[in-house]
Inverse folding.
């Protein structure tokens, strides 16, 4: 087999990169669990007809076929019945899981889910075709109190904030409320709310003038209505003043809307609570539209401060109908972190590094193959006290064994005593310091015990 | 959407089942890391031609197709070039990862890998089509010392042994050495070694008489040769006595083989070391053949004592050529735990249970929606000290809030003080005991802090 080359869109990390990813995943999991979110996993596949319920994502699905089907004479299935596809997000499978298991879940049900998802992008697009998402959602049975729309972005702020000490930049969470936009548009006399949202969502990409043209061409807006929509989208701020500015704009255009007022009250509550619980993190930004996702209340996007061009690394919102089985409706609110995108940036941008790529803090040297059992015994004693250890692969010269540790970043080499009555010794190969040590008592400093992730400059 | 039904072969767990699976995964990971194995993940897909290099697995591969390909007019690809399939084990992707990254890895390279794998079984077979495997492997560049063939099954013994306290039965690791069997067969005059191994591998399924018939019919063995192969397969034992019995059998049949002697020396070393390092766990069993896998030295299977009919839950062996790029050969030895099979048995067999299905140890009650910020502040103080907490979803009557905690198995309910100068109180809802408490100081007993997994009877 010739040396294989990477597959575009399917990121993989070397062991030290995986230390970074694992640290990110462990940190997210811990924060989610401290907030009471239960971890679940769903299967990687869903029936194709369920994956295709949202039209716009259909092009991104990977469909599965059993190779054996051909041999069985079935040929490729041409209809969709019974076909399976890989999930492209964790929301569709979670909604299905809730319906399937509703009788066994206590509502409101808070879950986190950290899994890979797949999108069948064209290979030449250079996008990730496989990546890890970390989602939190709360779903109610019948109803779901508004305060979860305040709580969930703050859980994400805390989770991402817990990564600050490894060198992850601070985050800014941009929030909006669909009711404000919808109420405002309808109050203006515009009825194609989805069309307006879709156009506004392109603001960062194509600019205000082009969006104004789109609004006129595609939603039947007058140029004055288009300007009003753009004026709304230009409002942002970290305190309740944004609410006053939206009201002033509405008054200027003769807009009156109960829906807008309800949205503004919610937005005010979110911004005010966030200012107390996570000062400086949450900013109301009236241009946040979240494309065609079926959100009905709060919507969220998250940028890394100083890396805004990376786009949103954590997005989500409120669904009045996350799932429904005909009898019962399950409203939900949730956010999803694009872990692979974040980790990829941390690694490729040289923002963080792992102190080593292997777990072992200690390499136990082997004096001769006949005394390997003595080295194994030292390793067992250290592991029994929670210290990660490798034993040298061969009884090479000690200089070679030390180089073996050095190449892996293992900070300590342990030399078992070779004479009765002599003490074992352990060497810090960074400083060269070598001291007597007892495998039943010695431990490395906490900072050396496990690989750590630190800012790249440290 | 009607209530969906589970997909056969794609297991999913309720939150308390996931607590069990997560505990198993965390325990395995910790043991692997204590032994110096670096964690990696590989992408879920490999080029189809690489997946099909081992003929017998071709029928089990799920092939991917981008739904968009149809729309692009390409139609289904009929050749295999560029096609992708889901990996059906973690060995093929690991071998590819080693070749792809050899220049960046330090050898011998020890890695663990815990991921889902997929097999496109016929749906009606009732087998898992998606399941989690946990693999450890050591791979050398050019050579790999024999002692790793002793070490690796003992790491697995320790990892599985660390699950004993939750109620996992003890394990027995059955070991054999391909050199013994091959040397013995060739010494007998049999040349179709793979054919003999394939027949012997069916011993548990079809019995000795049918295997004897197979050996005669398919490998050209005489009935005396067949009886000798079966006699070899009947030898087992936990100490070096097995080596003497194999030698006696060989002498009886006039078999002389250097290859067999080399295998016996290795097998003796493994059994003797295991008797010291993990007494009673490792048993030499000369019938272990591991089907057609390309093992060249030690082979391993693992059964749960008392649940032998479940089959092997942890198997593996030594490959002289795990990977090769033409210039360099990479020998390896590794084992793989079938985590889903193990967890499924633990849950369906009622062997273990989680103390609760949610992380939270404490539910902070909400006296009135206006005082929710006070409850949020208590929760933040407790979480800041590492205690997992939920806040009540609504300011319902306290009895209802306590029932909410009870339904989830949350052991403590916290009542924020409602008057200035009064103390908060915390109630253990199992005993009913309620005491004054300070959110800056109180902690639950360690046994209540996080969900635990315990034997079902506890």
């Amino acid at each position: 087999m010739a040396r294989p080359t990477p597959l575009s869109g399917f990121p993989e990390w070397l062991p030290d990169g995986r230390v970074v990813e694992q640290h990110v995943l462990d940190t997210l999991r811990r924060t989610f669990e401290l907030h009471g979110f239960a971890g679940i996993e769903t299967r990687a596949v869903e029936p194709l007809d369920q994956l295709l319920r949202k039209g716009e994502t259909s092009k991104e699905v990977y469909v599965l076929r059993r190779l054996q089907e051909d041999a069985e004479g079935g040929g490729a299935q041409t209809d969709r019945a019974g076909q399976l596809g890989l999930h492209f997000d964790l929301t569709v499978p979670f909604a299905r899981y809730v319906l399937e298991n509703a009788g066994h879940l206590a509502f409101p049900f808070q879950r986190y889910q950290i899994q890979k998802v797949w999108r069948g992008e064209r290979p030449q697009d250079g996008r990730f075709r496989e990546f890890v998402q970390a989602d939190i959602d709360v779903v109610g049975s019948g109803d779901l109190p508004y305060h979860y729309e305040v709580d969930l972005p703050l859980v994400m702020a805390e989770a991402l904030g817990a990564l600050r000490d490894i060198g992850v930049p601070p985050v800014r969470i941009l929030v909006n409320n669909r009711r404000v936009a919808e109420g405002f548009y309808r109050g203006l006399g515009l009825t194609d709310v989805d069309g307006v949202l879709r156009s506004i969502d392109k603001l960062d990409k194509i600019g205000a003038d082009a969006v104004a043209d789109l609004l006129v061409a595609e939603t039947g807006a007058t140029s004055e209505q288009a300007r009003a929509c753009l004026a709304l989208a230009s409002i942002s701020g970290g305190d309740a003043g944004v609410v006053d500015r939206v009201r002033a704009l509405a008054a200027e255009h003769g807009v009156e809307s109960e829906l807008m007022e309800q949205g503004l009250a919610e937005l005010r509550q979110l911004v005010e609570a966030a200012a107390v619980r996570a000062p400086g993190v949450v900013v109301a930004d009236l241009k946040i539209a979240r494309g065609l996702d079926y959100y009905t209340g709060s919507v969220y996007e998250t940028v890394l401060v100083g890396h805004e061009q990376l786009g949103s690394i954590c997005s989500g919102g409120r669904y009045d109908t996350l799932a429904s089985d005909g009898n019962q409706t399950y409203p939900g609110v949730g956010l999803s972190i694009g872990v692979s995108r974040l980790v990829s940036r941390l690694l490729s941008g040289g923002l963080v590094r792992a102190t080593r790529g292997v777990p072992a803090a200690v390499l136990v040297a082997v004096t001769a193959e006949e005394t390997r059992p003595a080295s194994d015994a030292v390793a067992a004693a250290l592991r029994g006290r929670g210290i990660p250890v490798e034993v040298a692969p061969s009884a090479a010269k000690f200089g070679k064994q030390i180089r073996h540790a050095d190449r892996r970043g293992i900070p300590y080499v342990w030399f078992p005593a070779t004479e009765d009555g002599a003490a074992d010794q352990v060497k810090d190969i960074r400083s060269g310091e070598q001291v007597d040590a007892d495998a039943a008592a010695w431990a490395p400093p906490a900072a050396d015990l496990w690989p750590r992730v630190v800012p790249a400059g440290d």
Observations:
- The first strand of chain B starts at residue 38 and ends at 39.
